[in-house]
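sanity check this record:

:::
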Amino acid sequence: MAKSNTARLTRVDGERAEKPKAQPTPAVLDRLIHERVRLAIVSALAVRERLTFNELKALLKASDGNLSVHARKLEDAEYISCDKSFEGRVPKTEYRLTALGRRALERYLDHMEALIRATREAAR
């Protein structure tokens, strides 16, 4: 049985009245992407098909350790994928944004746009 979008209330005279349910609360902000370095990683990968560890490091001006920690969190959430290989004897680490990561970034950006819009409307 499908649920109704309205709650039933019994009025004093015994009749039933329909009252609209409260609108659902906005989605919770994705804290994983909200962190500055992780947001920068997924944003960079959203516009480039792949980036190496060194390219991301230079782009974000991040230390090896800082970038590694944040990239690992995104990997664990399956927002990015990591491919390790060698060019000659030199290790090469490349990152790509996954479909799940792209959807998460799109939801995050939609959420931020809605917050900005609501703030502007409230200021009027």
The chain has a mean pLDDT of 84.
